[in-house]
Amino acid sequence: MQTLWLLSPLRVEELVLVKILSYKYRLHTRKDEEKKNLVPFSTVVKGVLLQQLVQAIVAHFWLTTTTKASGVGEQPSIAKQILQFLIAMFIMDTWQYFVHRYMHQNKFLYRHVHSQHHRLVVPYAIGTLYNHPIEGLLLDTIGGAISFLVSGMTARTAVIFFCFTVVKAVDDHCGLRLPGNIFHLFFQNNTAYHDIHHQLQGLKYNYSQPFFSIWDKLLGTYMPFNLVKRPGGGFEARLAKE
Ligand SMILES: [Zn+2]
Ligand SMILES: [Zn+2]
């Protein structure tokens, strides 16, 4: 049955369509992905699962041993929730900028922790959270906890905030410049912006993640870039100062 489905004309058409569409909007060619990435897909999947498992265990103990953050109770007004959401975005960005930048400056941390994420020179969505478990704890778990506590949001708002943050991070690593992508309309810090950071020449720039580019701009680590059409289809994010 499985074989029949795999060979069905609909499946073939689907695959061809996905291939054409993704090729048209890719920031790197498939050849680039195979040539530049330093880790096979299967290792990335295992790494992501391990990182997620560690974070889930930590979050479970954190939630079951602290507070009554069960989401029960009154939700504040929509205006207050939006304000809390914006504060949490700013706190998350601030935490991630400085920790991320430090992980590049400290040779030990870079070599033993953060370089894992940079084995994907050509990022793809599944590899978004291909991080060392310590990086997951430092950047995401602690960053998320601080954003949650400082903003004062309820657990219910926090669920929306954390989902939004993950979706944004996946979009930043998807490697596609799809037309009408709402994140690209609202955020200057988007797929191409983070793609620059994954390229070898852009490694010391565009540390800001996941939402704004404020800290890069204030502290001189912003790398302007151009999106240029690649002959044969797709776009390329190129450093403006190359
Ligand atoms: Zn980095
Ligand atoms: Zn990344």
Automatic annotation (TrEMBL):
It comes from Sphenostylis stenocarpa. It comes from the Eukaryota. Belongs to the sterol desaturase family. GO terms for cellular component: membrane. One of its GO terms (molecular function) is oxidoreductase activity. Residues 85-221 form the Fatty acid hydroxylase domain. Keywords: Membrane, Transmembrane, Transmembrane helix. This is Fatty acid hydroxylase domain-containing protein. GO terms for biological process: lipid biosynthetic process. The keyword Transmembrane helix applies. InterPro entries: Fatty_acid_hydroxylase, Sterol_Desaturase_Related. It is found in: Membrane.
